[in-house]
Amino acid sequence: MRAYVPSYQIISPSSLGEALGSLAQDNGAWQPFAGGTDLMVLLEAGRLPQKNYVNIWNLSELRGIEVTDSHVTLGALTTYTEIQDHETLRAEFPMLCQAASETGGLAIQNRGTIGGNIVNASPAADSPPALLAYDAELELVSVKGPRTIPYHSFHTGYKQMDMRPEELLRAIRLPRAAKGSTHYYRKVGTRKAQAISKVCFAGLARMNGDQIVDVRVALGSVAPIPIRCMKTENALRGQTINAAIVAAGKSALAAEIAPIDDLRSSRDYRLRVSINLLEDFVYQLSSAIR
User: Fold this and answer.
1) CA separation for the pair 112, 97 (Å, rounded)
2) For 273, which DSSP code?
3) Rg of the chain over CA atoms, in angstroms?
4) Burial class, 230, CB count within 10 angstroms (exposed 0-12 / middle 13-18 / buried 19+)
5) Residue 184 in contact with residue 81, Cβ under 8 Å?
6) Confidence label for 139 from pLDDT (cuts 50, 70 and 90)
7) pLDDT tens across 233-289, in order?
8) Do 186 and 200 form a contact (C-beta atoms < 8 A)?
């Protein structure tokens, strides 16, 4: 039997201002539609909410990658392919490029957007852990004007965000860090491609000799939201790498994440893999100084 497909309406504004005006109408009845790689899955399954959609795909104000001395800013409609092809991102933000390369297949990478990956709010998404480790900021816009928030405070619960119905994600801003940091990204899934992650780990650290001067750790698929593990970071920051410090970091991480059993994996597997990845990350920092 053919699946029931809800009726819907879609409009294509010619400017960002026009799009924001549409989103502000009717108390949240209108929602943005960009690459559509998530929404079309729901449509095919007959589970797309019966709402009106604002097609933002052609809005130039949401496109482009801007590089300044202090930041790299990605328009929300930047695709995974564009991320992988950008020279500065490849050189300075390799974890984001790796996440982009492991998101779906080539068709998804050509159409899917970094903004859509964020606001879809899946705890298993590939790019959020890298964005959290890179201390990203989000620029949200509405008819009332723009506002900027740190990405680590954006996800407030499962599929819940600090984002009003009339707001649109315009850009993602990444601070450019000093050279010499170690970048560590691992996605663990059933297959190398076209698979939702069981655990996704991003780690970034800067060393002074054998001391961890600064460190950031973020994970996906182990909590209701992509999580920046600040207690784990505090257990490692300023410490000299040894077995006791690694054990302290692993203990902090185990207390900070909240994996569950589901169709893709088990709680115990996710917990063990997360701890193992943290240990591997820290010991790679030690290896990097030899």
Assistant:
1) 14
2) H
3) 20
4) middle
5) no
6) very high
7) 999 999 999 999 999 999 999 999 999 888 788 999 999 999 999 999 999 998 755
8) yes
